[in-house]
């Protein structure tokens, strides 16, 4: 039942992530469907999937084939958070309630809280009532002011602590990105670049030299969003 709606990857143009984000932020299903249809979406399935519920609600007939293809590709890819998103999209396609508590979480903001620079912050808090994400400094009246500081001790059941893990998953993302390259020579150069100290810098420099920076950013962002979605699912939360 779930078939690909896009032609083979070698014959399709790249997805414009800026256009995708603007379509989703603007709640514009027509623009969203125009942006994703006929484009290479495999590096950005988590990002594309975030706009599918809006498209299904506004234009169910036009969005159905896109939803089915995204679900199929998520299932085949099987990365962190992919099965979670696929399950949620299936439920929305069938107009069934989600299995987990629906919360309007900004996945990108939460991802930055989880995987940002560990030297800048120890983590943050997720408001389980509103879905808002706060840096750990939000609990300090001296930093943010007494009027806006959050008191997690006053309502402990409302707040979920988010520990900052830093770039622990970053090296594996680089290794997986290198492994998926079809050009053997390029794949080997990328693999050599991430071996030993200075891996992130060498990898970044090689990406720019090979004109792969945009492809890498889409890939890395999708991996981070998937990990964040899976983190929430493990705690009984789906992103609404």
What would your notes on this structure say?
The chain is mainly alpha-helical and 240 residues long. 52% of the residues lie in helices and 8% in strands. It has helices spanning 17-25, 29-36, 45-49, 52-58, 60-77, 82-93, 107-115, 141-144, 170-179, 184-193, 199-209, 213-233, and strands at 101-103, 123-127, 133-135, 159-163, 237-239. α1 (17-25) packs antiparallel against α2, α9 (170-179) packs antiparallel against α10 (184-193) and α9 crosses α12 (213-233). The protein is globular, with a radius of gyration of 19 Å.
Rounded radius of gyration (Å): 19 Å
Structural class based on helices, strands and sheet pairing: mainly alpha
The residue ranges in which pLDDT falls below 50 over 5 or more consecutive positions are 1-8
How much of the sequence is in beta strands? 5-15%
How much helix, percentage-wise, in residues?
40-55%
Order of helices and strands: HHHHHHEHEEHEHHHHE
Mean pLDDT: 91
Count every helix, treating DSSP H or I runs of 4 or more residues as helices.
12
Summarize this entry quickly.
This protein has 240 residues and is mainly alpha-helical.
């Amino acid at each position: 039942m779930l078939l690909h709606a896009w032609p083979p990857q070698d014959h399709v143009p790249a997805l414009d992530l800026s256009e995708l984000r603007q379509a989703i932020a603007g709640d514009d299903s027509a623009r969203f469907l125009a942006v994703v249809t006929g484009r290479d979406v495999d590096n950005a399935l988590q990002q594309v999937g975030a706009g599918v519920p809006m498209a299904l609600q506004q234009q169910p007939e036009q969005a159905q084939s896109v939803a089915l293809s995204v679900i199929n590709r998520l299932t085949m890819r099987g990365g962190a958070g992919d099965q979670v998103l696929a399950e949620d999209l299936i439920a929305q396609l069938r107009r069934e309630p989600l299995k987990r508590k629906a919360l309007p979480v900004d996945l990108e903001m939460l991802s930055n809280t989880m995987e940002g620079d560990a030297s800048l912050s120890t983590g943050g808090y997720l408001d389980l009532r509103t879905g808002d994400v706060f840096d750990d400094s939000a609990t300090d009246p001296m930093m943010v002011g007494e009027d806006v500081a959050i008191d997690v001790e006053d309502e402990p059941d409302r707040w979920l602590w988010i520990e900052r893990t830093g770039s622990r998953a970053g090296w594996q993302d680089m290794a997986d990105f290198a492994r998926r390259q079809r050009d053997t020579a390029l794949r080997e150069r990328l693999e050599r670049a991430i071996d030993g100290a200075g891996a992130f810098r060498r990898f970044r420099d090689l990406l720019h030299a090979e004109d792969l920076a945009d492809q890498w950013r889409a890939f890395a962002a999708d991996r981070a969003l998937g990990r964040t979605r899976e983190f929430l699912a493990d705690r009984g939360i789906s992103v609404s």
